[in-house]
Amino acid sequence: xxxxxxxxxxxxxxxxxxxxxxxxxxxxxxxxxxxxxxxxxxxxxxxxxxxxxxxxxxxxxxxxxxxxxxxxxxxxxxxxxxxxxxxxxxxxxxxxxxxxxxxxxxxxxxxxxxxxxxxxxxxxxxxxxxxxxxxxxxxxxxxxxxxxxxxxxxxxxxxxxxxxxxxxxxxxxxxxxxxxxxxxxxxxxxxxxxxxxxxxxxxxxxxxxxxxxxxxxxxxxxxxxxxxxxxxxxxxxxxxxxxxxxxxxxxxxxxxxxxxxxxxxxxxxxxxxxxxxxxxxxxxxxxxxxxxxxxxxxxxxxxxxxxx
Length: 308
What we know:
- The protein is α/β, with parallel strands linked by helices.
- The chain has ten helices and ten strands.
- It has helices at 22-31, 55-76, 96-107, 129-137, 166-177, 198-203, 210-237, 251-261, 276-282, 285-292; strands spanning 11-15, 38-45, 86-93, 111-114, 141-144, 157-161, 185-192, 241-248, 266-270, 296-300.
- It has a ten-stranded mixed β-sheet, with helices on both faces.
- Helix 4 links the parallel strand 4 (111-114) and strand 5.
- Helix 8 packs parallel to helix 10.
């Protein structure tokens, strides 16, 4: 695994929908963005189609809606002031999902930040249609920011789920690009799926195979611990506190359980794991985690050839 991290600064797109979205910018501030990072604050105005029939009314409505949107952004962006960041205010017409997707491609965005839509108590832990669309179609990494359960004072607890796939490694490198406070605690978690691995299935096919299977399992465990030690060392070089954890079970369930047990502020996962196609057909681990987590979730996508 090449440990070259690349540039620290990023191009970020924040989807702003209401004044309460200031928790998103407070969360970004707590993560510690590098100076030189560009934060594009975007509000999308959905223009009522029936107004096309009334040109003068429509023009006035657009001007007022645009002015209100810029005021909204100025309130939401306040926590990021004096951070050495380049902040841009963007107001566009259209449907939120497609408009954000287009902006990500057009502007070369590295990270898109959104807040889950909550329309009722019943939908408290569900994602809105826009967020679901972005997680499925977005070419950038996506940060789904939920309102923190406690005040953020630099003592973040972050669960980094690691299966050593390309996207999981990209997730670790993404954290290394941030200027995380030294009081941050990183829980470096690897979940082994119990009972249904290829090696387990093979061991039931032939009585002569188990010794070789057990040897392969031990080799895999040694590799897992080696990789966890390597990633842990890189994080510790940044002055971060790292706890390594091994769990067994269904990955999404274990990630959510451990994050809840340790009252994590953020879960970081790769977009697709080692069995990407199977995960896609059954519902990816990252999407299940983003949908059901009680805390914020960062879904990191590794570099694709098509994007380079």
